[in-house]
Specification:
Blueprint lengths: L1 H65 L6 H23 L1
Helix pairs in contact: 1-2
């Protein structure tokens, strides 16, 4: 009978340890989830910032080429041609 009591006590002890370990792991999991969400938010913010800087860079590049820089003249001409086509289309729509 005492052997049975020892087995039950051993099982209770092991279950208690497992429950404690599960609680610790759940806390660690929640911490990691919070950290992941924060990193995702930071990543999205950084991605938006990079996108904004790329737009600014492209605008500056176009403005620089329009001011007479030889490096991007072809790109500037294409952009101007596109704008002229869009204006022509708008004028045609207005005249109808």
């Amino acid at each position: 009978m005492s052997e049975l009591i020892q087995i039950v006590d051993s099982l209770e002890n092991k279950i208690s340890k497992l429950l404690h370990r599960m609680e610790v792991l759940n806390k660690a999991n929640k911490t990691l989830e919070n950290e992941l969400n924060q990193i995702k938010s930071n990543h999205e913010s950084t991605r938006r910032t990079v996108s904004e800087w790329e737009e600014k860079y492209n605008s500056l590049k176009l403005a620089n080429s329009m001011l007479g820089s030889n490096t991007n003249k072809t790109e500037a001409k294409l952009k101007i041609n596109t704008l002229i086509r869009e204006l022509d289309y708008c004028i045609a729509q207005l005249s109808e």
